[in-house]
Amino acid sequence: MSLLMIPGPIEVSPAVIEAGSGKPPGHLAADFIEAFGHSLEQMRVIWKASADSQPFLVAGSGTLAMEIAATNVVDPGEPVVVVQTGWFSDRMAEMARRRGARVTVVESPAGETPSLDDIAAAMTKTRAKVLFATHVDTSTGVRCDAAAYAALATEHGALSVFDGVCATAAERFDMESWGADIYLTGSQKAIGLPAGLALLVASPRALAKRSRLAVAPPMTMDFESWLPIMKSYEARGKGYFATPATSLVKALPVAFGELLSEDGIDGCFARHQRGADAFRAAWSAMGLSLVASRPELAANTLSAVRYPEGVGPSLVGRIAERGVVVAGGLHPDIKTEYFRVGHMGDVLRRPDALETTVRAIADALTAEGHATDADAAWKAFCDVFER
Ligand SMILES: *Cc1c(COP(=O)(O)O)cnc(C)c1O
């Protein structure tokens, strides 16, 4: 079996696979209700969200979570700002457009983020009601300054929504103290489950905005369809609006337990930081550079790495021949110039998997004509990882 080192879906731990397999529970079974209720409580811990915030756990993709966010806090005709840091921000902008919002996109070249001044100017000029941003854009490996954006939105009397699909649980995010209004993800990224769950937490301000909307969201995406169900499960009662992904929900407390097992969620952020720093040391040893234009923009969940001189997209296949699946480029402007390696979740506890990855990439580079010392790359990795 090859090693899945793409920025989601990720390698799933044996304990999570075990918990999600077997006879699927009914959605009203006592142990299922407990798993659902406990997971909602744990989401507030992982999101660092306030006691009065509302977690939602719905069957679906990360993209569904994005659309739930886009339809519950915007009325048709309202001005919104989307901070563009890559491919997934464009998707968010299109969703807001389809909701009928008047969308202003604050652009930046691949590998960068727009300046705070540019974002502030767009907020002021358009009187935007919502600021949308991608916490980590998976197409560029760029992490935005979510704390600053949330503060900026609050200053402008606007809500802030963050797509955390390639960040949540791995990149520092402090929903309550930053004053963010929606933070969303999908289960197959840093959460460490198979794909199939959309997870998001909404602030009281976001819920209040939904209740003031003139035009209700589509029924399956409406906060108000799901609110009684979430409240009931959290009170360890029954609920039904549409059948949840029961096997996945059953495994969720196990995945959350793994995330929180070393010094809680802060320990999980630190583990991802250390893993990413180690990969960055390995890239340097291989003579490679990142798409992120400055070190502080480089995400801890994945590396978007530029091909060296003379090497191109065929490298991805060469790496796969060595048992490791990495991803090609995604950002349309630079698609053929880089590849992407995910480093989230369970693999950070599997030194053998990390070594296989570093050596497969080094050897593949050599095979493609960029002579690379795999021992030196692995040593550079370990010097940081074991520090
Ligand atoms: C993966 C990803 C998505 C899409 O998630 P799906 O589960 O594939 O729908 C959205 N945003 C970001 C930042 C992602 O990394």
SSE blueprint and pairings:
Layout: E1 3-4, H1 14-20, H2 30-47, E2 54-59, H3 62-72, E3 79-83, H4 87-98, E4 102-106, H5 116-126, E5 130-134, E6 136-137, E7 142-143, H6 146-155, E8 159-163, H7 175-178, E9 182-186, E10 197-202, H8 204-212, H9 223-234, H10 246-259, H11 264-285, E11 302-306, H12 314-321, E12 324-325, E13 327-328, E14 338-342, H13 351-367, H14 374-385
Parallel strand pairs: 1-12, 3-4, 3-5, 5-8, 8-9
Antiparallel strand pairs: 2-10, 6-7, 9-10, 11-14, 13-14
This protein binds pyridoxal-5'-phosphate (PLP).
Describe the structure.
The protein is an alpha/beta fold and about 375 residues long. Helices cover about 45% and strands about 15% of the residues. It contains 14 helices and 14 strands. The protein has a 7-stranded mixed sheet with strand order 2-10-9-8-5-3-4, sandwiched between helices. A hairpin with a 4-residue loop joins strand 6 and strand 7. The mean pLDDT is about 95. The site of pyridoxal-5'-phosphate (PLP) has 13 residues, from helix 3.
